[in-house]
Amino acid sequence: MKTLLITGAAGDVGTHMRRELAGRYRLVLSDKRPLKPARGEKFIRADISRMADALKITRGVDAILHLGGYSVEGPWEGILNANIIGCYNVFEAARRNGVKRILFPTSNHATGFYRRDEVIDHRVYPKPDSRYGVSKVFGEALGSLYADKYGMEVFNMRIGNVNEKPIDKRRLAILFTPRDMAQLVQIGIERPGIRFEIVYGVSGNKRSWYDNANAARLGYRPQDDSEAFAAEVLAREKPGADPIAEKYQGGTFCVLEDVPNPAAPKKAVKKKKK
Ligand code: 15L
After folding, report:
1. Residue 106's beta-bridge partner residues?
2. pLDDT tens-place string over residues 195-221
3. Per-residue pLDDT tens for 27-63?
4. Closest CA to 15 of 182, 155, 264
5. Which residue's CA is the nearest one to ligand 1's atom 7?
6. Which candidate, 20, 28, 178, 228, has a CA 20 to 30 Å from the CA of 203?
């Protein structure tokens, strides 16, 4: 059984992947937040913005699912530390520790400034919609360098929205159910001959704005389609959304400056003295 490191394992997507991949891989988990490992899992608390930590977590693993990082638009410093420095540290530590295969969850926000009436494939030039999107383009470029220069095997998934159901109209196009993600992740780990690939991490959504032929070529057969929820989602969609957000695939990321960081470690709340 292969050993898979999941960084950012305490987050939502990490939690889904732990459940979906349990029993298929020996799971090594890391996060800067605390996490209670289940039976058979190993947890290492680590801050990937420190190279020593990145070296520690990548030792002795067969593949890495690098979920750790800042996952929304936010202040540059947070993105810089987690998604530029942290991402570099994970790739570099993997190289030094002889780990060849990295699965990099890039994002739909790496191409978020393509219009919703366009269909794009894996060969389009990036058009990030946010600092966060730029950091994902950085990760894709870093993976390209490490594949070409050091022979690493890099599987980039431009992830949509990981959820069981679509939460709004935009997500009808980019829903990515946990079981479809687990299928794509397994292709990324198991498929022989990967050097550098970009695929879209989305379910088989009827309203998709991606031509995901590259994922299909590699064997991806999504089981889910957001269409089953379309009527219900559209009925509750409020009119009058921002016209820029409506026009582009990245939605509100195209206009927002800052949203709360879902991965921020919780601050200890001091109890008031009575
Ligand atoms: C992303 O890249 C984010 O990581 C996730 O939190 C969602 O916001 C998703 O995109 C989305 O576009 O819905």
Report:
1. 158
2. 999 999 999 999 999 999 999 999 999
3. 999 999 999 999 999 999 999 999 999 999 999 999 9
4. 182
5. 161
6. 28
Assigned token pair, 39: 């039976």
Q: What is the atom index within ligand 1 of the atom nearest the CA of 109? A: 2
Burial of residue 125, with CB atoms counted within 10 A of its CB: 0-12 exposed, 13-18 middle, 19 or more buried? exposed
What is the CB < 6 Å shell around ligand 1?
A: 71-72, 107-109, 159, 161, 171
* Cα(135) to centroid(ligand 1), Å: 13
Backbone angle region of 93, left / alpha / beta, with phi > 0 → left and psi within -120 to 50 → alpha: alpha
DSSP state letters, 169-232: HHHHHHEE-HHHHHHHHHHHHH-TT-SEEEEEE----TT--B--HHHHHTT------GGGGHHH
